[in-house]
Design goal:
With 229 residues, the chain is an alpha/beta fold. Helices cover 30% and strands 22% of the residues. The strands form two sheets. The protein has a five-stranded parallel sheet, sandwiched between helices. A five-stranded mixed sheet has the order 6-7-10-8-9, sandwiched between helices. The mean pLDDT is 96. It binds S-adenosylmethionine (SAM).
Length: 229
């Protein structure tokens, strides 16, 4: 058996009970070091832990797939929620196993950001640059999102396309300098927050940061209903 699950944004209060149960019953726990560390205290002493990094993830996932095919209960851990910036890793798990695998949702840093920034996802688009491959189509999409009058919650690409680079790119491509921007770091684990405008977003942030770029247009939820005649 193999199952993939998100572990939430970092604090165990945001780990789902289902994920905690799967971890407690697992023979094999696999994931990137920082993600496994989030749930380290819940991992049973007898479980095998397979840690990996960007360079060796394919080989390590092959090892997890072998254990799965040998009948072990394997749980692969994802940061936050699999469905937010997690599909390239999910594809690697499925490629190693040779078949689709079950994916359980978790709570994403994007959801915590939406909550901290009090923005509604109906009026907001999520975009990640934390991916392999060509970022240009995603940059253009971000530009269109703002032009369409929507908020954007953006995961930067460490360290190639960080908040200051995203802001600079948008300004070069015609975005208004006075878009309100927030950058949040280490959400649920001590939260650091920066607020300013797109033009002011020139500082350095860590790789555990997520960005909110607010629309200039009033959101449907902020528009007063017209008085009844
Ligand atoms: C590969 S993406 C995975 C996102 C994850 N699937 C999620 O739902 O949050 C990793 C990036 O998410 C962002 N991130 C994840 N957890 C965060 C947190 N607690 N606070 C701020 N940013 C976070 C950071 O930009 C980090 O580099």
């Amino acid at each position: 058996m193999i199952i993939c699950t998100g572990v939430g944004p970092g604090h165990l209060d945001f780990l789902t009970r289902r994920a905690a149960q799967l971890i407690a019953e697992a023979d094999v726990i696999a994931g990137f070091d920082a993600v496994v560390n989030v749930v380290r205290e819940l991992i049973p002493a007898q479980a095998q832990v397979i840690l990996m990094g960007y360079r060796d993830q394919v080989a390590k996932l092959d090892q997890v797939a072998l254990e799965h095919h040998a009948g072990k209960k394997c749980v692969v851990l994802f940061m936050g929620d699999i469905h937010f910036s997690g599909f390239q890793y999910l594809e690697r798990v499925e490629r190693a196993c040779g078949h689709p695998v079950e994916a359980l949702p978790g709570i994403s840093s994007a959801q915590i950001m939406a909550s901290r920034g009090k923005v509604c996802f109906d009026e907001t688009t999520f975009i990640t640059f934390h991916r392999r491959g060509d970022l240009e189509p995603f940059k253009r999409h971000l530009s269109h999102v703002l032009a369409d009058g929507r908020n954007a919650i953006v995961i930067p690409c460490p360290w190639d396309f960080m908040p200051k680079d995203i802001a600079a790119w948008l300004l070069e491509h015609g975005a208004a300098p006075h878009h309100a921007v927030e950058v949040w770091e280490n959400l649920t684990r001590g939260d650091a927050e920066w607020r300013g405008t797109l033009a002011e977003c020139t500082g350095e942030f860590t790789d555990m940061s997520i960005m909110l770029i607010r629309t200039l247009a009033p959101m449907p939820s902020q528009i007063e209903p017209a008085p009844q005649p």
